[in-house]
Every structure is written in structure tokens, then in C-alpha cells.
Fold:
Amino acid sequence: PSPGAAMNLPRRGSSFLLAGLLLWAAPALPDDTPVPPPESTPTTVQALAQLLDPVAEDRLFRVASAGLSVVDVETGEEVYTSGSDKGYVPASTMKVLTAAAALRALGPAYRFSTDVWTDGELDGAGVLHGNLYVQGHGDPTLVVERLWKLMADLKVEGVQRIEGDVVFDASFFDDEHRLVGWDKRRDIERGPSYFATLSALSLNFNTASIVVGPGAEVGGKARVSTETPAGSYVVIDNKVETGPAEGRPWVTIEREVSATSTTFTVEGTVPSDAEVRRYYRTVADPTAHLMAAWQELEKVHDIKVKGKHRLGATPARAELLLHYRSQPLVAVLMDMNKYSNNFMAEQVLKAVGAEVHGVPGTTEKGLRYVESYLEELGVPDGDYELVNGSGLSRDAKLTPRALTAVMADMGRDLRVGREFATSLAIAGADGTLIRRLTEDPGRVRGKTGTIDGVHCLTGYVEAADGRQYAFAFLVNKLRGGSEPAKRLHDRFLRRMFHLGADPSDATAATEAESR
Structure:
């Protein structure tokens, strides 16, 4: 993803450098002398109340359920609040907790790996006398192009024929493939891409890309295929016709899951002059999907296998042949947060669980670490109810105050704070905020969260007084779409832009809104 407009969030480097120089020049203090943190001035708090009270008095606070918390990042002090002690469905703003926990537990340079091992000997003729083991560690970025390269490198290593089995080891995670916390029946049946399955051996975000285009003749079948061949595991039942030119296209996709396959029945009509379109649907068994794609790539690379393709564990005596690593965690989190990728969030959370609490990684183990982090910050138990890492759940609950506690902590963390801020969407520049606040881009970094009846936003905003503020603005029980919440979020942020601009902050903000 493009880094977009530059924004120094959190702006801590220069203030800490200045503080360091001042301390160097000042007389030494006794070791036990407490150094209190700076405090927000009463003037700032009063100015915020003047600016933000009109926002909290908006009718949305009456017809929906809304809570707002604003914290001065430097001091950690909550400087404005309205309903911030109540729990709300956070939707994808939950991902900031997952990202913060992952950076703390794993570090920004952490990489997911896919390893190839053998317990046999490779002779000079390219024959591997033994088994080949493909061991996954939850890489959420493994796509078919990289799998192709891995197998090409296997061929370069000299492997042309495998006398034993090809064994797929997904034991780094548990075998619970379904994302927990979302029980919408229609989604369980259809498998939309935002409800992706999970595995330590995952491919293409565990989705099938179904390609639909017109056929050769009007009235004949359209062309329907999968972008990544997966043998008999992904089956396409093509019932799409080619219609007259300039007609209206319509396509429906139904999914049927069995123990050995995922079948997609594709029906509809595409005009003869239509462009090719791709539709994404989740595969039910992600490990089986990768195994099937692997077998198809064996044909491409002309690697012969005498034995079976099966699940199993990598033995301790095996020797490493190939070690494939993902981009660093900080890059993974950029995709996860800027584009709100549920699959990535759940894979990252399970990896945290595995690395902190031991294999296999589970959602519960990952959340256990997130909870310990919240406890460390002093967030009360009643301020959160965690279900998964992506926020795709109506059972999850967070107070705005719990979110701003994490945001403010990350804003002061010199080890991973900048990497955390980098993962967030830049208003007016990229991600889910690319079309928001375009008249003044780069002053907000944030994470949105939306499901039916819910629209939330948390992030950092740079005010005119030069200070950074963490905020969480959660809105539940919306009717008629998320636009009213988006408008109020943007109104709130535009008012924050004017904080410290001049003595009549509220007047200036009101005039800007009217323009």
C-alpha cells in the first residue's frame, strides 16, 4: 500500500530529544525523585469542551448509541468524554488492539514462515528418498505466486522426484478453521471473502477467485473458472449464459461444502461485450485448498510424487530444505489495518497465541495476551468483552476509554509506536479513510469499523496547538446506514483541527463547518 501523505504520528521524537538535552544540562536529581508527567492545561480542557459539546449534543447521540473519548497522547490524560465508560460493539476498531498486542509480543521485524523439510536423502539424479514436509506458520500473505516460487526453488535445489509422501503440517495453529464470533447464517452458507477461514497453511487469503467472462457466442455458456487451479477441491458448476451486447449483467454464486470439496454454483447472464470480472468466495477447508493447489503446481514444475499427499507432523529429525519468510510484521499490519482485512487480523492473533502461550496457536490464547496488555494499562475488566481479533462480532464490547488507553500507550511507546501509527489509514490519502477529510489530508490516522448498524472510528488527530490527541468515537444502533456517523466523525475531527488556532476556537470551527 502507498504510504500516502506524510504525517509524523505520534510526534514524540523531537519532544524526547529536547527533553534529553534539558536533562543533560540540568543538575542531576536524586534517583528517588519523581518526575511528574506534563499535564494538560485547564485552558485546553475548557477549549475542548467549547469545541466538542456541540458534537456530543448532536441528535445522533439521542437516536443511536454513541460514545467519545479524547486523550492527550503526551500526558495520557482524558481531556474530553461523552459516554466513554459504556461498552459498544467496536467492529473493526478491534484490530488496533490486535495490532498493538502483536507489535509488543512479536516485534515489528517478526516474519511468518513457510518451511520445507525432508527426512530423506536427495541423490544426484534428483530423487528424494523419503518424505517432503511443508510446514506452515500462519503466513497471511502467502499467495499462489509465492507458492509457485517456492516450488521453483525446490526444483532448483535438485528435487525432481519424491519417493515418499508430501506431508502438510498445519499444527502451528489449531484446527478450528472458522472465524469465531460471527454466526450470520447467510454468510456461513455463502462464504463471503470478509468471513475467511483460518489455517497455519493458508493460500490466497483462503478464498477462491472466480473469473467470469462472456463466451464465444450469444446464447452459449459464458467462461467461468478459478484463477488458481485447485484440482478437485474447488469445483465450479457453470450455469452462466452469454447475453446480447450492452445487456445488464447479473451473477449469483452459491457455495456447497462437503468433506472433500467446495463447490461453487455460478448462475446468471453476462453480455457478449462485458469485461471479465472476479468474484471472491471463501473455501471451507483452507489446508485442503493449499494442498490441492500444491499438487497442481507439481504438474507445472514437473515434480513427480510416488507417495501420497497427506496431513501430518514434521519429525524432529527432519532437515530444512527451504525457509520462506513473509514481509515484516509492520508491513503485514499496514495491509491489515489500512484495508481492514479480517483474515489477516485473525491469523496475526493466532500467531501471538502460539508464540506467547505455545503451539497450537488459538484465538483464545491470542486474546489472553491482549487481555493481559489491557490489564497492564489499568483498563478495568468491565471495559471489554473480547471475542476475536478482527472485530467481526456483535458479542464483542469495548468502551471508548479502553481504546484510547491503547492508542495513547502506543503513541508514547518508542519501540513500536511509530510502526503502529504507520499501520493506520491516513485520512484523505489511503486505506479506508482515502475519501475522508480530503481538504486537509494527513492530519488524521485512524481505523474504521463498520458492520450493519455500527460505525466506529479511532485514531490520532493533530490539532492546531501542535499536540497529538488519541480518540475513539463509537456509534451503535444506527438506522439507515453509516453516513450520519461518518458525517459526525468528520465534524468532530474538523473541530479538533481548530484546537489552539485562536482564542475563539469554537467560532472558527463553526464558521468552517458552515463553509
